[in-house]
TrEMBL record:
It holds the Pfam family UPF0556. PANTHER family: MYELOID-DERIVED GROWTH FACTOR, MYELOID-DERIVED GROWTH FACTOR MYDGF. The gene is Mydgf. Coiled coil: none annotated. GO terms for biological process: positive regulation of angiogenesis; positive regulation of endothelial cell proliferation. This is MYDGF factor. GO terms for cellular component: extracellular space.
Amino acid sequence: STAEFDVRPGGEVHSFSRSLGDYGCTFTYSAQGGTNEQWQMNVGLSEDSGLFSCSIWRPQGKSYLFFTQFKAEVKGAKIEHAMAYSQAAVGAQSDVPLKQEEFEITETAVSHREGKFRFELSKLMIVAKTPRDEL
């Protein structure tokens, strides 16, 4: 399911969450400059319910806001793969990933790395493994 939300500048910390059954995704950030931007969050579950995914992005491809911090957190699942991008794919453009040193990934979150993050963010993508036992 996909939901639209506004990313608001002004330096305050905001967050937006979606959940799907036992699993959830929360995007927390603060940003400066410009005006509100429309972003989207998509949460999904694989057919066998073994993987929970959460993507957060600006459909226009590039955000012009200056992000001072960001964190995308999943609940109920453990991150298997995550990536952050300074630019999201649009038309012939492809995703531009952040440099490895700009962000960090833990079992449950992907977040900016203080002092290394260059304030540009347009997309976050997480794939997490659910605790469901294999039969």
